[in-house]
Amino acid sequence: MSIPPTVAGSPCFGPSVPLFMFATGIENSNPTVDGRRVDQMAASGHLHRWAEDFALAKELGCGFLRYGPPLHTTWRGEGRYDWGFADETLAALRAQGTYPIVDLCHFGVPDWIGDFQNPDFPRLFANYAEAFARRFPWVQLYTPVNEMYVCALFSGRYGWWNEQLSSERGFVTAMKHLVGANLAAMRAILRVRPDAIFIQSESAEQYHAASPAAWAEARRRNAERFLSLDLNYGHPVDAAMYEYLMDNGMTRAEYAGFRNTDLKRHCVLGTDYYQTNEHLVEDDGSTRASGEVYGYATIIQQYYNRYHLPLMHTETNLVDRPEADSTEWLWKQWANLLLLWETPIPVLGFTWYSLTDQVDWDTALRENAGRVHPVGLFDLDRRPRRVAGAFRRLIAQWSEVLPARSLCLRLPLAPLRPDIGG
Length: 422
Description:
This protein is of the alpha/beta class. Helix content is 41%, strand content 16%. The protein has a single domain, classed as Alpha-Beta Barrel (TIM Barrel), CATH 3.20.20.80.
């Protein structure tokens, strides 16, 4: 094994992988809603058309793919796994030279776990992560738990997914178990692959006050949006947030455990930004989407100034309609990245998510209506949308420009090790 990287400042281990990561992803959300499993890999047809999907990703020029096997069918019980689908698909990605950013848990757990209120989830998930790493020791890039903040909100406070609770205690419990599982999985993977790099995909949010009466609530929510990452990286929360955690089920010992984490040096701050990520807070504390007010570059500087980690834009898209051309959104997000490029902030990658259209995301998967959400680079018949051509051109035009700047920043991204197992 090579020496573990210090992501914030060590030199590159090798030039064989370009440091700027153009990526897309296969949407693999799998929460339960009213006891019904919502499987986006099945809904998009990927379970049967994965070879075609991988070929499309390669044709676009994407060297990286956010990807992971469906957790609820792969993890069959404590210490029991069905690796059949993962063996076949990951071998195919490796053969075609596409680097997976392996997404292990995306909004849902197997039925036998229950939900994110289960206090055993962190320990059990760490065992799964270690088993995965031993099965696929050539994999280096991971997102152990996707969008912990969003998952805790939707499952523990909004009452939409999984445990479907609508309480502050439900939210805090889901949050501490999701972050605890993420940290435990990172440690488990590092036991197998000491040079693993963790690209945490988390939603970048911003709350705006509609009036002075809403200002205090907007400030509270702007503190809360950092909570999953504060716990993940050992960053201290403010006094009001600490009191909130203590009042809603987190213990002093649990908080101290999060503060003492030592894994930040293995991490890249992956952040997701959509048109719905900015919110207007009304006088009564309710919120609604505000549309793009600050934009990605402004918001993400707040995250960088807090954590001082290399960045990757890990998700964005826009519904493709005649009145809302998704290619314009692609250009706008890329312009935001180029603005960051002019600052000292290290930017490692950009992702259009996902490769294909999704299903029922217009209601956050709560309705089983089978409505196609046209946000992909390709539709569900695998025909390219306008944004696919634009993304292909963007990659072709910029791929020879940006890696040189990344190398000047001397950020590490160790090449995947073809000499290790698998």
